[in-house]
Design brief:
The structure holds two protein chains of two kinds.
Chain A (H helix, E strand, L loop, with lengths): L1 H6 L5 E12 L2 E13 L4 E5 L6 H9 L6 E6 L2 E2 L7 E4 L11 H11 L4 H14 L15 H14 L4 E5 L7 H18 L2 E6 L2 H7 L2 E5 L6 E6 L14 H21 L6 H6 L9 H4 L1
Parallel strand pairs in A: 3-8, 3-9, 6-7, 7-8
Antiparallel strand pairs in A: 1-2, 1-4, 4-5, 9-10
Helix pairs in contact in A: 3-4, 3-5, 4-5, 5-6, 7-8
Chain B lengths: L5 H9 L3 H4 L17 H11 L1 H26 L3 E2 L1 E2 L6 H11 L3 H34 L1 H14 L8 H7 L3 H26 L3 H8 L5 H39 L4 H10 L3 H29 L6
Antiparallel strand pairs in B: 1-2
Helix pairs in contact in B: 5-13, 6-7, 6-9, 6-11, 6-12, 8-9, 9-11, 10-11, 11-12, 11-13, 12-13
Classes of the chains: A alpha/beta, B mainly alpha.
The complex binds adenosine-5'-diphosphate and magnesium ion.
The site of adenosine-5'-diphosphate (ADP) has 13 residues of chain A, from strand 1, strand 2 and helix 2.
């Protein structure tokens, strides 16, 4: 089993028939239902969906923090049964250890693996250099900007050489400029490391710009509504975001998401309601128009 | 285990990416080397930078001087206005008794013994309180077992333990240390528990998916994350330790600064009462400064 895993390319995520319900006082709440996805080794896959649709829930299950209610999650054929250094994760909230310097944060995974101090220091320095952070190795996270914190978070997750990198809206809290730079840095690192990435976001541009494939998730209970391959060539440039190809993909995804966002808002705004606002629908569905 | 990090494996082909990957790193700021500033300018700048602390120090000194002056006046004129200053020693009398006391080995022994009792009682409380707090915070069963007992014992002031302590321990010295221990134990335990309950679960998850097991998570996440609250507990515990110690010494001691103060009253040496009180104040202040210093050493990330 493990021989096969090392012989073939690694980081193949398969999720089959997945659903997850939270137990609450009001009974069980289904957050994600009937979801199938896969990420091929070395592939960059995003999941987009309106907020509250269960993206974090799903990703936390892949990371091994939550147990699926039904279905299976496997990485390279092995069932996920708990968190492991095989699956690196970057969290939406900055999750650096405030009591460790930037370098100590990056070293953490290597330390857990029992690597000697001098060796892991060297490894951490190399990695920080790749992310342009070597000047900050001795800083404590508190002193860093949001973008730098998240860069350290990514470097820390990559330091142990995981098969898979999971990111939960990692750039959600960053300003637009920093976000673009971070996307560039992430793609660069991904291309170098040839690692499988599962990226969760509510930002459609981000998903298209980064991914080989995008899954679009429905409003809660979340499930996969559509799967869109992104045939844009790599390396990708910022300028591509103006290309007609990009814009067409964007329009397609946008309408899928809009529909779900409206559902997520409770479906209160129906077509009739909109007509009341003097918008003519000409027989199109609401999602096409908005 | 030949677990050379995967990262080193990638290192070779990752290197060329460095240029592409780096966000423009901050350009080193080129400050033109200025002409050496005059002494006056330097002094002015230093003054402006330290204005606030200078101001606070100046006001502090004035306030202490005013306190001494009021004390002096009240005792010189033996004011009786609800409170009677007739027998209260003047600052000068206390100073005279201080200069005598520092040459008196007995006085120094009193101080030394009090410090030793604090050291043993407080250290024991710190070790037991922090460890128990960490374990209770992490293991629910231990919490469920220990917490009810702790909650019942906690409201009992350490002084109320004096008779029991004398029964429990063979020597007077041990019972005083025990009371000092009890006084500081509960604040330390409660604050450690509070710190443990506030540990950010995302940090625990982050550690888990970096390969940390239970013991490492305890050592690398729960403990450092709780440190600020642990130190709050230690600071409060140190204060209560002195309160308990002085009370215990006054009731059952033969030595110690609390005993000294009480003895001075019995022997009608009024100046020594004030001297004892001031010594207690200075020792209390000193030990809380020690704790604060230790906190800054142990938690460099919280330094300003
Ligand atoms: N611990 C929990 N208990 C109960 N309900 C939860 C819990 N966590 C999340 N949910 C619910 O599950 C749904 C999905 O949440 P989440 O996965 O965080 O969505 P997303 O990340 O897409 O914004 C939300 O409606 C949320 O209210
Ligand atoms: Mg989320």
């Amino acid at each position: 089993m493990s021989e096969i895993a090392t012989a073939t390319p690694q980081g193949h995520i398969e999720v089959k028939n997945f659903s997850l319900s939270y137990e609450t006082i009001d009974g069980s709440v289904e957050a994600v239902t009937n979801t199938h996805i896969h990420v091929k080794p070395g592939e960059f896959v995003s999941i987009v969906g309106p907020s509250g649709c269960g993206k974090s829930t799903f990703l936390n299950a892949v990371a091994g923090f939550l147990k699926p209610t039904t279905g299976t999650i496997t990485v390279d054929g092995e069932r996920v049964s708990g968190p492991s250094a095989e699956r690196g994760m970057v969290f939406q909230q900055y999750s650096l250890f405030p009591w460790k310097t930037v370098r100590e944060n990056v070293e953490f995974g290597l330390k857990m693996r029992g690597m000697p101090r001098s060796q892991r220091e060297r490894a951490a320095r190399t990695l920080l250099g790749l992310a342009g952070l070597e000047a900050f190795e001795k800083h404590y996270p508190e002193k860093l900007s949001g973008g730098m914190k998240q860069r350290v978070g990514i470097v820390r997750a990559l330091a142990t050489g995981p098969k898979v990198l999971l990111l939960d809206e990692p750039f959600g809290a960053l300003d637009a400029q920093t976000r673009v730079i971070m996307q560039q840095i992430l793609t660069n690192m991904w291309q170098r490391l040839k690692i499988s990435v599962l990226f969760v976001t509510h930002d459609i541009d981000e998903a298209i710009f980064l991914s080989d494939r995008v899954y679009c998730m429905t409003a809660r209970p979340g499930s996969i509504k559509a799967e869109i391959p992104i045939p844009l060539e790599r390396p990708r440039q910022q300028s591509m975001m103006m290309s007609s190809e990009f814009l067409a993909l964007r329009r397609g995804l946008m309408s899928l998401i809009r529909e779900e966002s409206l559902k997520a808002m409770g479906g209160e705004i129906n077509d009739l309601g909109m007509q009341g606002l003097n918008i003519e629908l000409h027989g199109h569905s609401l999602a096409d128009v908005i | 285990m030949s677990s050379s990090p995967a990262i080193l494996r990638h290192q070779d082909d990752a290197m060329p990416a460095a240029a592409a990957v780096t966000e423009p790193t901050p350009v080193p700021v080129m400050t033109p080397t200025p002409a050496p500033p005059s002494f006056g300018a330097l002094a002015g700048r230093w003054y402006r930078l330290n204005q606030d602390s200078l101001r606070a120090t100046a006001i502090g000194v004035i306030s202490l001087a005013a306190f001494l002056l009021v004390w002096h006046l009240l005792t010189t004129y033996r004011v009786v206005f609800f409170v009677r200053f007739t027998n209260v020693p003047s600052p000068l009398a206390v100073y005279a008794s201080f200069t005598k006391a520092i040459h008196d080995p007995k006085f120094l022994l009193h101080i030394l013994l009090s410090c030793r009792r604090i050291f043993f009682g407080f250290s024991l409380a710190a070790i037991v309180g922090v460890l128990l707090g960490l374990i209770m915070g992490r293991f629910k069963l231990v919490h469920e077992i220990v917490f009810p007992v702790a909650e019942v014992l906690r409201p009992i002031p350490a002084i109320a333990w004096v008779p029991m302590a004398i029964m429990l321990w063979p020597t007077n010295e041990q019972s005083i240390v025990f009371i000092t221990f009890l006084g500081s134990f509960f604040p330390i335990l409660v604050n450690t528990l509070h710190g443990m309950s506030l540990v950010d679960p995302v940090l625990v998850r982050a550690a888990q998916c970096l390969g940390a097991r239970e013991r490492s998570i305890f050592r690398e996440v729960y403990f450092p994350a709780s440190l600020p609250h642990i130190f709050t507990g230690l600071t409060i515990g140190m204060g209560v330790a002195w309160v308990s110690l002085i009370a215990a010494e006054m009731i059952s001691g033969q030595y110690g600064i609390g005993y000294f103060t009480w003895e001075a009253y019995s022997l009608v040496q009024y100046a020594d009462i004030a001297l004892g009180m001031i010594a207690i104040g200075v020792l209390g202040l000193g030990s809380s400064l020690l704790i604060r210093g230790a906190g800054q050493l142990v938690m460099p990330w919280r330094a300003k």
